[in-house]
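# nightly structure sweep
# worker-07 picked up a monomer target from the shared queue
# config: single-sequence mode, recycle default, output format = structure tokens
# input follows
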Amino acid sequence: MEAEAECSEEKSPPAVYKWINQTLRVDLTDGRVIVGTLVCTDSQPNLILVNSQEYWTAGKSTSPRCVGMVMIASRHIQKICHVMANLSYKKGGGDAP
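# output follows
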């Protein structure tokens, strides 16, 4: 399953301010992927996402885990993608968008 996404390796605040109230995919340095709605950021930029789900890319889990509201420290961010389409996930598929 593929989704259109606009990715940015840049971590400067202006790059993410435009995505407030938008769905983001955030790849973390430990292999997790968090997908949720961006509601807040700061100058670092640390991110706060709501309605979030966590996925493991290293095969630790086969299904997403609902984590609700999360704060992601900028030092753990590997990549940020703006998810541009609503997706329906296959039950038990475990694939992050």
